[in-house]
Amino acid sequence: MPQELQLQVSPEIAANESLLYEHVAQLVRVSTKLVHKVVILKRSIDARQKSIKVNLKVSVYLIDEKYTEQKIELPNYENVSNKQEVIIVGAGPAGLFAALQLIELGLKPIIIERGKDVRGRRRDLKAINVDHIVNEDSNYCFGEGGAGTYSDGKLYTRSKKRGDVDRILQLLVGFGATPDILVEAHPHIGTNKLPQIIQDIREKIIECGGKVLFETRVTDFVIKNNEMQGVVTQNGDTISANKLILATGHSARDIFELLDKKKIFIEAKPFALGVRAEHPQELIDRIQYSCDFRGDYLPPAPYSIVKQVNGRGMYSFCMCPGGVIAPCATSPGEVVTNGWSPSKRDQATANSGIVVELKLEDFKPFAKFGALAGMEFQKSIEQKAWHLAGETQRVPAQRMIDFTRSKVSESIPKTSYVPGTTSVEMGQVSPGFLTQIMREGFIEFGKAIRGYMTNDAILHAPESRTSSPVRIPRDNETLEHTQIKGLYPCGEGAGFAGGIISAAIDGEKCALKIAQSLSK
């Protein structure tokens, strides 16, 4: 039987197979020649002390113990061309993994996606970055793969159900992701690699008889006696099915408006809003690793920070080491920021959303919009930022210390945000209470992380799409909407997930509930 060990080693040993084998041999008290295979099961970095260590969980096979490499294989997806159809609105992680699960369960998914396929989206991303043109149906938020495809591909989740998480990770490996995601404490695919994986998932769905309709926007729901019958598209076509998974993401405002107009019950949901802060990656490395130079064996350092300020949580969100800031508006007349990293995380800058938790009471000035009050609050800030920055895709920006002192920055250096920045006193962007919390919060951040508070850090506004401003309620047991039978609100847009993995898990859960309801 192989031995399972918990190790704490230097970054150099963790990165060098021969050194690792030597280290393991010493621990199990055998010659290095007798160590047949060391399999890394889990890996994380411990940077709490000056001497940085890598935590490893490994299985050790000696020379007389058989080791068989575990190959990740996809499930046996059968052809479902002639099976019962289920509509899925949205081709993000919730929609795609719901489709795969439906196929496993012998049902035919029809995915309706307002945006373009993963390759076609690139032209529209270039247009928003270079020409400041926002395509409302194809952008960083909308299109095949959803918001995660071109905004980082982080796979970390707080989900407590390890089996569900592992299943999603294994499926991603089966579709081409590096097996390292099964090992790393904070797995990450990278924006440069995720598109091919997404394309391969779509091709498998089609190969098995499912349908994927791109550039097809749902404009109405067909409902009879509070039961789902199908959808109407922008071309006037009706697609019929009495089971529908609504997985449209946190930015599909037209869907929220449609639900509200049809008096299908939805409710305002608190979310978080703030700015995106960019530091030189070298500075974050020095702070986090307590060294002048990161070296060859450590990855670009991330950071995570949470503070309570005036009774509100202020925290880092979607931190991107070695990454860039992207323009994520979904309509003309607004600006939105987000961040992403390539797989190697090799850019010169680090960025993170720094956001403050909002409460339902904050939306009172928009009370006339009812359940859409939070969405209108969010929209108002994005539109104000657009106006203040010059009514293009440039965003308001300010040096961090200048922001805490309410001082307009005399100059803003070139940042990773390609459309550009405009020097603005960012207290003009957000309501006064939110600005005050952020000013005090950054001072507290500077006390907690020495060197973090610097005018070399540039704040970009706003970071506003942290989660959905609306919740679409569903029954805890059946996962159906509390009012409309056959409607399954799903993923981030419905308020039941936050990130690629949790959205994918939620998509699978909805698919399973549909299969169970049809088998009764």
TrEMBL record:
E.C. numbers: 5.3.1.29
- SUPFAM superfamilies per UniProt: FAD/NAD(P)-binding domain
Provide this UniProt record's keywords sorted from A to Z: FAD, Flavoprotein, Isomerase
- Show where the FAD-binding domain sits: 85-116
> In the record, what terms sit under GO molecular function?
FAD binding; ribose 1,5-bisphosphate isomerase activity
Q: Where is the MnmG N-terminal domain?
A: 213-250
Cofactor(s) the protein needs: FAD
FAD-dependent protein C-terminal domain boundaries? 270-466
Enzyme class, spelled out? isomerase
Which Pfam families does the record associate with it? FAD-depend_C (PF21688), FAD_binding_3 (PF01494), GIDA (PF01134)
Against PANTHER family, the record matches this protein to: FAD/NAD(P)-BINDING OXIDOREDUCTASE (PTHR42842), FAD_NAD(P)-BINDING OXIDOREDUCTASE FAMILY PROTEIN (PTHR42842:SF3)
Q: What is this protein called?
A: Thiazole biosynthetic enzyme
Look up and give the organism this protein is from.
Flavobacterium sangjuense
